[in-house]
Design brief:
The protein has 336 residues and is of the alpha/beta class. It contains 13 helices and 12 strands. The radius of gyration is 20 Å and the shape is globular. The structure holds iron/sulfur cluster (SF4).
C-alpha cells in the first residue's frame, strides 16, 4: 500500500514569477541567469498558487525570481492576481538591473504601489555588483523614495564597500578580493550566509575542508526532517510547483498540497524524507548506478551531485527533481 504524507499548513513564502535573471550571482540558490527559460508566470497561475497556499493558512507572500522586473506586464498581472485572491504581498525582490531613469522607474513603482505592494527588497551586496552597476541600485532607491515605496535593503552593511568603487561599472569578486584582501570571497560567505544550495554550494565548497564520504553522509542524516512540515519560506513557482524551504531543486505539484501525498510519485522526496542524505545516496547507488567519490566538502554538495546524476540518467523517474534547468544549467559560477 503506498505511503502517504501531507503538507497540511503553510505560513509564509514566495511567489517565483520567473527563473531567468539579468544577473548570475555566485551565491544564487536558484541558479538563475540570463539564459534560463524566459517563461513568466501568468495571471491564472499566480492566482491559483495564491489560492492554494491561502487555503493552507498563508496570508502573505513575497515575490521573487529570477528577476521579477524583467517582465513589467507580467509582474503587474501577478500583483493583480494576488490582490484578487486576498494575498498580501510583503515585498518584491529586485536586483535593480531594470533601472533606466528616475521618471520611468517612479512611474513603474507607482503602478506597483497601486496594486498593493509598498516595499521592494533591494539587493545590495558584492555578488550582485559583479553584474549590476551600483548606480542602478541607487537609482531604484531614489525612485522608491519618490514613489512612496519602502526600501528593504539586503544588506546595508555592504553599502560602503560597494560605494567605494566606480558605481557606473560592475566589479567582479576578484576585484573585491584585490581591493579588500584575498580572503574576501570566503569572508563574504560568512558575512552573507547564503543558503547552501544552487550556485552557492558550487562557489563555497572549495573553501571548505574535504571530508570522507561516510562523515558527510552522517552529517546529512537529518537533512530530510521538516522537508514536508516546515511552514515558512517555501516557494511556489510559475510552473505550478511547490518548492520546500531550502530545497530549490525539489518540486511537488501544487495541487497536491493539503491532501495525502502519494509518495510513489515523489521518489526523491520520499528517499530524503525517510532516510536523509544516506537514504538519498542509497537510492542513487543501488538503483541508478551512482558511484560516489572518496570525499566531499558539504552534505549539500553531495545532495546536489546525486540529484544531478538522477536527473541525468533517469529524468522521467524523478519528476520531483525540478525544474530540470536547475540541474542542467550550463551557466558556471563566475570566477571568484
Ligand atoms: S541572486 Fe537574484 S539577482 Fe542574483 S542571479 Fe539569483 S535571482 Fe538573479
Amino acid at each position: 500500500m503506498p505511503r502517504t504524507l501531507r503538507i497540511a499548513s503553510l505560513r509564509s513564502g514566495g511567489l517565483v514569477t520567473n527563473y531567468a535573471c539579468s544577473s548570475a550571482c555566485a551565491h544564487c540558490s536558484y541558479r538563475s541567469h540570463p539564459k534560463r527559460d524566459k517563461a513568466y508566470t501568468t495571471h491564472d497561475r499566480a492566482a491559483a498558487n495564491c489560492r492554494k497556499v491561502r487555503q493552507l493558512g498563508c496570508r502573505s507572500m513575497h515575490i521573487g525570481g529570477g528577476e521579477p522586473f524583467l517582465n513589467r506586464t507580467g509582474l503587474l498581472d501577478a500583483l493583480e492576481a494576488a490582490r484578487e485572491e486576498g494575498m498580501a504581498i510583503e515585498y518584491i525582490e529586485t536586483n535593480s538591473s531594470w533601472y533606466r531613469d528616475h521618471e520611468s522607474a517612479v512611474a513603474l513603482l507607482q503602478e506597483v504601489k497601486q496594486r498593493g505592494c509598498t516595499t521592494l527588497l533591494i539587493s545590495i551586496d558584492p555578488y550582485h555588483n559583479a553584474y549590476i552597476p551600483f548606480a542602478k541600485v541607487k537609482g531604484v532607491m531614489a525612485a522608491c523614495r519618490t514613489a512612496g515605496i519602502s526600501i528593504f535593503p539586503w544588506l546595508m552593511e555592504f553599502y560602503e564597500e560597494i560605494n567605494a568603487l566606480d558605481d557606473s561599472k560592475t566589479h567582479s569578486l576578484k576585484e573585491y578580493a584585490d581591493r579588500y584582501g584575498e580572503d574576501y570571497v570566503a569572508t563574504l560567505g560568512q558575512r552573507y550566509s547564503p543558503s547552501m544550495s544552487g550556485r552557492a554550494i558550487t562557489t563555497y565548497a572549495p573553501f571548505m575542508p574535504a571530508k570522507p564520504l561516510r562523515e558527510v553522509l552522517e552529517q546529512g542524516r537529518t537533512m530530510g526532517q521538516g522537508l514536508l512540515t516546515q511552514t515558512g519560506h517555501f516557494h511556489v513557482d510559475l510552473y505550478g510547483s511547490y518548492l520546500p524551504p531550502g530545497f530549490p531543486g525539489f518540486s511537488l505539484a501544487i495541487e497536491d498540497l493539503g491532501d495525502d501525498l502519494d509518495m510513489s510519485r515523489y521518489p526523491a522526496f520520499a528517499a530524503l524524507h525517510d532516510g536523509g542524505l544516506p537514504g538519498f545516496y542509497d537510492l542513487a547507488r543501488t538503483r541508478h548506478g551512482f558511484e560516489a567519490g572518496e570525499t566531499y566538502h558539504h552534505p549539500r554538495e553531495l545532495l546536489d551531485i546525486i540529484a544531478r546524476h538522477l536527473v541525468t540518467c533517469a529524468p522521467e523517474a524523478f519528476p520531483d527533481l525540478r525544474p530540470l534547468e536547475y540541474y542542467t544549467s550550463a551557466c558556471r559560477p563566475p570566477s571568484a
